[in-house]
Amino acid sequence: MGDVNRTKRYVVGNWKMNTQLADAIVLGEGIKYGVESLSGVEVVLCPPFVWLYPLAEMFSQGPTNLSLGAQNMHWEEKGTYTGEISPLMLKDLVKYVILGHSERRYHFNETDEMINDKVISALDHNITPILCIGEWKKSESGDVEGLTKQLKAGLAGLEEAQLKKIIIAYEPVWAISKGDTSGQRAASGEYAGEVVGKIRSYMEKEYGRAVSENIPILYGGSATADNIKEYMFETEIDGVLAGGASLKIDNFLQVCKAVGEYR
Ligand code: 13P
């Protein structure tokens, strides 16, 4: 399991249920050659499960700042769970796994308890969990109570050493996949920075300073090459979890470059 800390910045690309094999190969090749020259940024691609193996082969010789992540995982190692993917299947292919994404919570009824089981299982199998939390409705300065409820439940039962191996992604649900087309937009850098600061304060209060100072907290929700600097100027934000922008080589590489450069 790679060490997780705030000296690195992270760009996680969540491809969601997009791409066919040929697209995945083109995207993988383009990103591989583009990130080679970047420093200070850890890039994680999270393609659909079926593309993990060919991409793992493609990235087997590096670059070292490029890793794979899964978009989800079951908590059991094996068994009668038709259609599910286990940590044993993933652990040699990925370093990271996105858990608790709002789309999993909403479309597949994932509960905080299930997400907690997955977080524990990922850690047990040396896969770094990227735990997603986010409020559904826009409010003045984030629904801190709702966010901390998700955090508390998602992290239940973990010890300090385990809490130091986790990444948190703050994704306000109202800001996901908005582009600039619907009148609603991505969260502003200022808003995202303020809420991430509150999440970090909660982590300090609940789990102590050693944990809160170490834990990377990413922003996600319509982050693109056009607005990335806004987020990176916020000192509390340690990187981004990008959806749409991760499906375009140029846009994604510009995001990666900016995250490495601006802080
Ligand atoms: P978009 O960047 O497309 O808004 O998606 C964000 C997201 O949900 C990443 O997990």
Walk me through this protein's architecture.
The chain has a single domain (9-261), classed as Aldolase class I (TIM Barrel). It contains eleven helices and eight strands. The protein has helices spanning 21-35, 52-58, 87-90, 102-107, 112-124, 144-154, 160-163, 189-207, 209-214, 228-232, 249-261; strands at residues 9-14, 41-46, 66-70, 96-99, 128-133, 167-170, 217-220, 239-242. An eight-stranded parallel barrel has the order 1-2-3-4-5-6-7-8, surrounded by six helices. Bound molecules: 1,3-dihydroxyacetonephosphate. 1,3-dihydroxyacetonephosphate binds next to strand 8.
Please indicate the percent range of residues in DSSP E strands (runs of 2 or more). Answer: 5-15%
Query: Going across the major beta sheet, what is the strand order?
Result: 1-2-3-4-5-6-7-8
Question: How many E-type strands?
Answer: 8
* CATH architecture label: Alpha-Beta Barrel
Q: What is Rg?
A: 17 Å
